[in-house]
Write a structure and sequence with these properties.
384 residues; alpha+beta; Cytochrome Bc1 Complex, Chain D, domain 2; Glutaredoxin; 3 domains; seven-stranded mixed sheet; two-stranded antiparallel ribbon; 11 helices; 13 strands; 12% strand
């Protein structure tokens, strides 16, 4: 059997893919209605990957039950072609299903929203994050606190204490469910309102921006507290201008490693490197010379990168992203050089993967370790 994290990742990914494929099929047949331009999940329940992550025993039971179902289907298929043993095969099917270790429904199924499988249209852009930050200060800060840890001045007056966005709860919720609850509110197990909805004050696009900000803020706060990103976070998208070329989005470099250098201490000594695309981040438009070809001059981008970096003083900070756009490493101003210890998004408690060769310097060792440990992102499941 594969390592624990690997088979569980595959199981949760299969559940997510199956449900999303079912929704697309229903949409193609015209059996579901759109919400915010995307097909709405028509059922009151969905399969829960996040609960399987918490209850490994139930995850194992589901795995064995799925194997039993596959075997039962194979037996039925064989019975269609093998007349002599048909009845023996058909009788064994219900016995096999009775013997299967069925998982508990209360663990496997969770309440769904029409937006459970919606995907954010913002692309996690810096401008959406900055917009979300302003909306958060206006509508959410009093209860959830400036740092998102649920300790705002009005927190104690709420029916249920607000959640900590720097913890795992935010990351184990589907983006569409978060978006739906921002607009329509949250209710407890007995149906009582525990958070008011903001659908009368926020547009659909503003609610998505607010979700983007909460994810960026949660990543930065977790980095401040724990010293690493316990959940993966992507680089905020921003317009980048390279020498002799027009503006292009940062996400267009997917498939290549990207290094973002915030202008400040030590940034002037940064040079181009064939191992990754280097982008100089500036807090505002500037006409001064840049040490590299590609520059992003955007106040919203500076603000968004400061959030995920967990620092109010971003100047001189460097962030390194992998080929899929996930932020993986950080170097702070005054640091002597890169090393494998700067890899802040990795499998917690797991041995380091072999890098497959001898690295000649700290940055090469870091890049090799990053490539050897790709992020396998499944909402609600293991992610490294």
């Amino acid at each position: 059997m594969p390592p624990e994290t690997e088979w569980l990742n595959q199981l949760i990914a299969a559940l997510q893919f199956t449900q999303f494929a079912l929704l697309r099929l229903l949409d193609a047949l015209g059996l579901v209605q759109p919400v915010d331009g995307q097909p709405a999940w028509p059922f009151a329940w969905r399969l829960s990957g996040e609960n399987l992550l918490i209850d490994l025993g139930q995850a194992r039971r589901l795995g064995w039950t799925l194997a039993a179902l596959a075997l039962a289907a194979l037996l039925v298929l064989l019975a269609l072609f093998w007349r002599r043993g048909r009845w023996a095969l058909l009788v064994s099917v219900p016995l096999l299903l009775l013997a299967a270790p069925w998982p508990e429904a209360r663990v496997l199924l969770v309440p769904a929203t029409p937006a459970s499988f919606h995907r954010s249209p913002t692309g996690f852009s810096a401008r959406a994050i900055a917009q979300g930050q302003a909306l958060y200060a206006q509508h959410c800060l009093a209860c959830h606190g400036a740092d998102g840890r649920g300790q705002g001045p009005l927190a104690a007056a709420q029916p249920v204490w607000p959640p900590n966005f720097a913890g795992p709860l935010l990351w184990r919720r589907a983006d569409g469910d978060l978006w739906w609850r921002v607009l329509h509110g949250v209710r407890g197990r007995k149906g009582e309102a525990t958070m008011a909805g903001f659908g009368d004050r926020l547009s659909d696009a503003e609610a998505w921006a607010l979700v983007d900000f909460m994810k960026a803020q949660g990543a930065g706060q977790a980095l401040r507290v724990a010293g690493f990103w316990p959940q993966p976070v992507g680089l905020p998208d921003v317009a980048v201008r390279c020498a002799g070329q027009g503006a292009r989005p940062l996400r267009s470099w997917r498939g290549q490693r990207v290094r973002v250098v915030a202008e400040g201490q030590g940034a002037a000594s940064v040079r181009e490197d064939p191992r990754f695309v280097t982008v100089l981040l500036r807090p505002a438009a500037s006409v001064g010379p840049a040490p590299v070809d590609c520059v992003a001059s955007d106040a919203a981008a500076w603000q968004a990168f400061a959030l995920i970096a967990g620092s109010d003083a971003l100047a001189g900070t460097q962030l390194l992203a992998d080929r899929d756009g996930w932020a993986r490493a950080r170097a702070v101003p005054g640091q002597a050089g890169w090393s494998e210890d700067d890899l802040l998004c990795r499998t917690e408690g797991q041995p380091r993967a072999p890098t497959g060769g001898v690295a000649t310097d700290g940055l090469s060792a870091l890049v090799a370790a990053m490539d050897a440990e790709p992020v396998r992102y499944v909402k609600g499941g293991f992610v490294h």
